[in-house]
Amino acid sequence: MLNALTLLIVCQFIGEVTARFLGIPLPGPVVGLIVLLGLLVWRGGPNAEVETTGNWLLRHFGLLFVPAGVGVITQLDVIGANWLALLVAIPVSTLLGLVVTGVVMQRLDRTEDEG
Predict the structure, then answer these.
(1) For the stretch 11-42, what's the b/e string if a residue is b when 16 or more beta carbons lie within 10 angstroms of its beta carbon?
(2) In this model, does residue 62 exceed pLDDT 80?
(3) For the chain, which terminal residue's Cβ has fewer other Cβ atoms within 10 angstroms, N or C?
(4) Are 53 and 8 a contacting pair, CB within 8 Å?
(5) Is 60 helix (H, G, I), strand (E, B) or coil?
(6) Does residue 100 surpass a pLDDT of 70?
(7) Helix 2-22 / helix 28-43 crossing angle, nearest 10 deg
């Protein structure tokens, strides 16, 4: 488990450094996930230790939302001052995300059928 966690943290670190150094408009952890994906594709998939550790992290994923929930509670005054913008932004961004995901999936499905 320690080796797998080290791999995950090193990939995240590489993503953070890369995003900041190159000025990529993506969060470092996202770049790190892309690095991890490339590494896993190159290796032919995750080994048993990485898979076990990943499954363990996913089982306890809900705990990672506790700090975000606390952050929301501590910022209730800001939320109250910007309630209208939030009321518009949340549904619009959700709908936009669904539409983009649907379009991408349709195009990927089309290219898979052609190939």
Answers:
(1) bbebbeebbeeeeeeeebeebbbebbeeebee
(2) yes
(3) C
(4) yes
(5) coil
(6) yes
(7) 130
Give the rounded percent of residues in the chain with a pLDDT score beyond 70: 97
d(CA 23, CA 31): 12
Distance CA 20, CA 23 (A): 5
Q: Give the DSSP H/E element, type plus range, for residue 52.
A: helix 48-59
Which tops the pLDDT comparison, 82 or 1? 82
Q: Quote the pLDDT of residue 4.
A: 92
Angle between helix 2-22 and helix 48-59 axes, rounded to 10 deg = 80
Q: What is the mean pLDDT of the chain?
A: 91
Which residues neighbour 65 within 8 Å (Cβ) at sequence distance 6 or greater? none
Q: Which two tokens stand for residue 37?
A: 């994906």
- Mean pLDDT for the stretch of residues 2-31: 92
Q: What is the pTM of this model?
A: 0.59
What gap in Å lies between CA 47 and CA 57, rounded to an integer?
Answer: 16
